[in-house]
Write a structure and sequence with these properties.
The structure is a homodimer of 342-residue chains.
Chain A: H1 4-11, H2 15-23, H3 30-43, H4 49-56, E1 61-65, H5 74-90, E2 94-98, H6 103-112, E3 118-121, H7 129-136, E4 141-144, E5 155-158, H8 160-173, E6 178-182, H9 186-190, H10 194-209, E7 213-217, H11 225-234, E8 240-243, H12 247-251, H13 253-259, E9 269-275, E10 287-290, H14 293-310, E11 317-320
Chain A binds a DNA duplex (30 and 30 nucleotides) through residues 3-5, 13-17, 19-20, 23, 25-29, 32, 47-48, 50-57.
Chain lengths: 342, 342
DNA sequence: GATCATTGTCGAAGCGCTTCGATGAAATCG
DNA sequence: CGATTTCATCGAAGCGCTTCGACAATGATC
C-alpha cells in the first residue's frame, strides 16, 4: 500500500504538491503534474479511504434505507437500490445498505458518526417513522416517495396523480367511458404505502371531473380474476381498464377478461400505470406509464449530492412527469368515427 | 458533534482513558468507567467513523458484489444481499453495495483504498471474473457460490449435489422410480451459473447409482407446461418430480401435470430443491429442500469476519448440508405395502 | 520493610490525507 | 527598474481516534 508520502518521494516533490496535483485544487505546473502522475501510476497509489474521509470531512458514502415488508415487491425494491447505487457511483459515491429493523438505528448511526454524507430513503409509507427521524438529523436526506407530512423534507417521486390522469385521458381519447381500476392489495394500502393512495386519488378525481363511469377493485389473490369479476359486476359495460397493481395481477388480466368474453384491446383497452415491471413479456404487452426507477433515483441522487457538496436545500417535493409507452393495448372504440390523426 | 476530547473534559479524565473505558480494551476502574459513560451519554457522543477507521486501520465495512444479469432472480438476489447485511450488522459491520459493471472495479477499489475490510461475492458463475481478481487481492474475500476453479478461494454454498441426492432418496423411499427433473432455463445454464450444474450432476449421478429411470427438462417459458410435456414424452410413467427451477415454473407445475391427468402427490410426488422461494403460497404447497439465504449468508459472514479480525484462512470450500421441509407433496405410491413408520 | 507484580491512568505518537498560509521565483506594470 | 501581482511549491497544522509505553499507586510476597 503506497501512501501519498511514497508518491511524493518517488516524484521528488512534497506531499501537498502530490495532493494538489492529483486533486487539481490548486494550479500545478504540467511538468510536476506529469511527474506525480507517473509516480502514482508506478506505485499503484490509491488514496486511503478513511484518511481521505477524515481529512476532508467527507465520506463519499450515501446510506440507503430499504426496509423489507412482508408485501414488498422484491424486484422493484432491488431495482431502486441498484439504481441509487449506480447513480451514486456516477458522482463517485458508494452506497451503504441499511435494512429492515436497522433502518432507523442505521440512519441515526450513519449520520451521527459521519459514516455517510447523505441518506436516501426508499419505500416510503404515508406515516413513516423515518420522516420524523429525518427532521432531527442535520444530515442531507432525500426521500424517494412521499410521506403524508412532507414538512422540512426533500422528496422525489413519480407524479402518480398525473399518471392516473394521463391513463384516463388516453382511454377517454380512445372513446372509453366505463373505466375500471385495479389497485394494489389491501395489505399494501393498509400499510399506507403512499403511492397507491395518490394514484387512487388522482383516478377518482379525474374520473369524476371528466364524467366517466368508474369502478375500483382490489385484488385478493396473486391474479386478476377476482378483481376483474368485481369490476364487471359494478360496471358491466367496462371498456377501459387501468392497472396500478402488482406484476402477477397485471400479467393475468388478459386471461381474466377473456373468461368474461372480453378481448383486449377491442372490448377493453388496458393501461398499466405507475408500475415498475415491464409488460413486454406478458401474453399481451400493455401500454405502460412506468414508475421508472432510474428516473427517480438519478434525480434523487443528483439532489442529494448537490445538498452534500454545495449545501443547497432543493425544493421540498419534486414530482416527475409521467411518460407513456405504447404497446397497442389501447385502441379507439369508434375507430370509424374518430379517425386516428398522427 | 461531541468528540472524544469533549467527553474526556466532561468526565475529567484523559482522552485515552475515555477510549479504553468505552472499548474495554484495558481495565478501567468502575468509578471512572461510570463517569465516562455518563459523560458520553450526556453529550450524545458517537465516535467519528472515519477517525476510528483511520486510527484502528479497520473500516468495519464489508463490500458486497451483486451483479445483475438479465436472468437474475431479483427476489433471490435481494434476499442474499439483505441477509448478508443483517449478518454483518450482528458483527457490527456495515455493507457497501457494489453492482453490475462496477463489480470488478468496485472490488478493486474498496480493497485498494481500504474502504472495505472484506468482500462477499454473490451470484457466482462457473467462470467468474471475480474469482481471478480475488486471487490478486490481499483483502479477505468469501464467495457465496462456487466457481469451477476454487483454488485459493474461500467459498460457501448449499451442497447442491447432496440436495439432489436427498430429493431422489425421498422419492425412492416413497416408492417412486420414474423421476423427472425440471432444471433452469438454458439461458441461466449457459451463463454457467454454477449451482444448477452441480444440482444436475448430483441428480444424474445419484439416479444412475440407484437405478431409477430419469429424465431432465429445461423450461422454455415462464411456466412448467412445456417442460412437463417434454418429461412425460421421455418418461411416460413419471411418478416423481424434482424441481430445481424458478418460482414461476414451479408454481405452475401442479396445473401442468393436471393437464395430463396427473395429480400431485398421488400420481406424481413433487419436491422443490435448491430453491430460494417458499412454496407455501402455491396452489399446492410442495416439499422443499431450501436454498436458505440466511444459512449461507450467516456462515459466509461469520467466516469473513473471522478472517478479517483473526487473520485466519478457513477451509477452502464449505458446503451446507441440505434440510427437508415437508408439506405433504410426497406420498408413498404403495402406501398399503410400505406403511409409514414415524 | 524492601521487592516485585498488578492495576488504573495519562501523554504522545501516529494513522494518511487535506488545506491553509508562507515563500521564493517569475511575470507584469507604470 | 522597483513595486506589485501571479504562479508553483512547500511546510505544518490539523481531522478524531487508537494504542503503546511510562508511571504512580496499590497490593502481594518473603
Amino acid at each position: 500500500m503506497a501512501t501519498i508520502a511514497d508518491v511524493a518521494n518517488e516524484a521528488g516533490v512534497s506531499i501537498s504538491t502530490v495532493s494538489y496535483a492529483l486533486s487539481g485544487k490548486r494550479s500545478i505546473s504540467p511538468s510536476t503534474r506529469d511527474k506525480v502522475e507517473a509516480a502514482a501510476t508506478k506505485l499503484g497509489y490509491r488514496p486511503h479511504a478513511s484518511a481521505r474521509m477524515l481529512a476532508a470531512n467527507r465520506s463519499h458514502i450515501i446510506a440507503v434505507t430499504a426496509p423489507l415488508h412482508a408485501d414488498t415487491d422484491h424486484s422493484a425494491h432491488m431495482q431502486f437500490a441498484m439504481e441509487v447505487t449506480q447513480s451514486a457511483r456516477e458522482h463517485d459515491y458508494d452506497t451503504l445498505l441499511l435494512v429492515h429493523n436497522d433502518a432507523l438505528e442505521g440512519m441515526q448511526r450513519s449520520a451521527a458518526t459521519s459514516l455517510a454524507d447523505g441518506i436516501i430513503v426508499l419505500d416510503v409509507d404515508a406515516h413513516d417513522d423515518r420522516a420524523a427521524l429525518a427532521r432531527t438529523l442535520k444530515c442531507p436526506i432525500v426521500f424517494i416517495g412521499i410521506p403524508e407530512d412532507t414538512d422540512g423534507l426533500v422528496c422525489v417521486d413519480l407524479d402518480f396523480e398525473a399518471a392516473a390522469e394521463l391513463a384516463i385521458d388516453r382511454l377517454i381519447d380512445a372513446g372509453r367511458t366505463n373505466i375500471g381500476l385495479i389497485s394494489h392489495h389491501q395489505e399494501t394500502l393498509e400499510r399506507e404505502s403512499n403511492f397507491p393512495l395518490r394514484f387512487l386519488h388522482g383516478f377518482r378525481k379525474h374520473a369524476t371531473e371528466n364524467g366517466v363511469d368508474s369502478a375500483i377493485a382490489y385484488p385478493t389473490e396473486h391474479r386478476a380474476h377476482e378483481a376483474v369479476a368485481a369490476l364487471l359486476a359494478e360496471l358491466p359495460d367496462l371498456d377501459g381498464l387501468v392497472l396500478n397493481t402488482s406484476a402477477d395481477v397485471a400479467a393475468s388480466v388478459t386471461a381474466a377478461l377473456a373468461e368474461h368474453g372480453k378481448s383486449v384491446p377491442v372490448d377493453v383497452s388496458v393501461i398499466a400505470a405507475g408500475v415498475t415491471f415491464s409488460t413486454h413479456r406478458f401474453p399481451l404487452a400493455l401500454d405502460t406509464i412506468p414508475l421508472d426507477a432510474h428516473a427517480s433515483c438519478s434525480v434523487a441522487v443528483d439532489m442529494l449530492v448537490e445538498m452534500v457538496e454545495d449545501g443547497l436545500k432543493p425544493p421540498a417535493t419534486t414530482l416527475i412527469a409521467p411518460t407513456y409507452i405504447n404497446f397497442g393495448s389501447v385502441t379507439s372504440s369508434t375507430a370509424s368515427v374518430i379517425p386516428q390523426v398522427n
